[in-house]
Write a structure and sequence with these properties.
Elements lengths: L28 E2 L6 E7 L7 E9 L13 E9 L1 E6 L2 E6 L3 E4 L5 E5 L3 E9 L2
Antiparallel strand pairs: 1-2, 2-3, 3-9, 4-7, 4-9, 5-6, 5-8
């Protein structure tokens, strides 16, 4: 279903349905860290998977998240546009278009946008 957010259900034979979404059909929502917004492509309550969420995250120039950790989740970032900086366990890492960054569970991290940024964010549960 394009642009909708259906719960995934098994059809005959226990095969799960495919999901097709178009960004223009997804309503932006605030991020958990109260900066920017995200377009959620898939969330954990829709799919039986260790993936907690796949989203396109949009940060505006000057926005910065607080330093935080995820105890039971790895977080993957792929920078689509813009630039900024991440802090990973007190190490500063420049973020630029085309970069992939893995933040392992229990790693303290924050992100700061130096310009408007767009990235794909994927959370993967370790539970």
């Amino acid at each position: 279903m394009i642009g909708s957010n259906p719960k995934l259900k098994s059809n005959k034979g226990g095969v799960r349905s495919s999901v097709i979404r178009v960004l223009s059909g997804i309503k932006p929502i605030p991020t958990a860290h109260k900066i920017g917004e995200k377009l959620v492509l898939l969330s954990q309550d829709e799919f039986d998977s260790p993936i907690t969420q796949i989203s396109v995250t949009i940060l505006h120039s000057g926005e910065k998240s607080e330093l935080h950790t995820h105890e039971t989740m790895d977080e993957h970032f792929f920078i689509l546009s813009g630039n900024g900086e991440m802090v990973l366990d007190n190490e500063q890492v420049k973020c630029e278009c085309g970069m992939y960054i893995l933040v392992p569970a229990r790693t303290s991290h924050s992100i700061c946008a130096f310009s408007d940024m767009k990235c794909i964010t994927i959370g993967v549960s370790l539970d």
